[in-house]
Amino acid sequence: MTRLLDAQGLEIAGRLAATDLAIIGPQLVCLVGPNGSGKTSLLHALAGIGSASGTVRIGGADARTASPSVRHRLFSYLPANRELLWPLTVRDVARLGLAALENEIDAALETFELTGWADRRVDRLSTGERSRVLLARAFAARSALLLLDEPIANLDPLWQLRLMDILRRSVSAGGQGAIVALHDLDLAARHADRLIIMKNGRIAADGDPAEVIAGPCIPAVFGIQRTREGWRPA
Ligand SMILES: Nc1ncnc2c1ncn2[C@@H]1O[C@H](COP(=O)(O)OP(=O)(O)OP(=O)(O)O)[C@@H](O)[C@H]1O
């Protein structure tokens, strides 16, 4: 199977590290962990944001040294911060910096039900609506790997489910890989092919979602446990 992601020795300003991370073939990987556990830092390191060091190969290519247009084909990064206070239209933002074709932009706008809003200004949208615009941009690039930081934050319940479904289809049919940071353990476990738990900047558990969720790592890392009424403090 194709080695989609191969990352080694990831470090950001000497403070956090993930020694080895590989994705073999298309996979939806959900990344969970308490606040400050390093989810964003890991995504930053993979996307080459800030002073990250280490090696990141996506589809065999060096993601760090690739030109911007090639980089978009390798990965798309959705930041947790959805501020877009520019007088740009939805379509402008969806194509921002991408070498994507117009029909790829159109398809992504349609997927996120933004076609009728293509000429609306993003600084006049709600936070959840802006999230959909940035998600459309991330999908329009048709990158080998999606790196999404809390993509469901600000989305209403229907769009949370729709997004997980879009991701599922994109990974299964489109052959994409995705690493998605989430706080919703149940949503992550239900949709992921693989669940990674972060703690103190390290990977504390990595494997089959049902096994990871049922294992000892959740109470140890999050201080919660599952009861018949749902998650409760351990
Ligand atoms: N720019 C920075 N400089 C120094 N330390 C930072 C910086 N950004 C984050 N950190 C620290 O790195 C650790 C991991 O932060 P990170 O944002 O990766 O966590 P996270 O798991 O994404 O958290 P959250 O769930 O709150 O979004 C935290 O202790 C944080 O204080």
From TrEMBL:
InterPro entries reported for this sequence: AAA+_ATPase (IPR003593), ABC_transporter-like_ATP-bd (IPR003439), P-loop_NTPase (IPR027417)
Domain ABC transporter: 1-225
Pfam family, one: ABC_tran
Top-rank taxon, per record: Bacteria
Record keyword Cell cycle present: no
Entry keywords, A to Z: ATP-binding, Nucleotide-binding, Translocase, Transport
Entry GO MF terms: ATP binding; ATP hydrolysis activity
Glycosyltransferase recorded as keyword: no
Role, per record: Part of the ABC transporter complex HmuTUV involved in hemin import. Responsible for energy coupling to the transport system.
Protein name: ABC transporter ATP-binding protein
Gene source species: Sphingomonas parva
Source species taxonomy: Bacteria, Pseudomonadati, Pseudomonadota, Alphaproteobacteria, Sphingomonadales
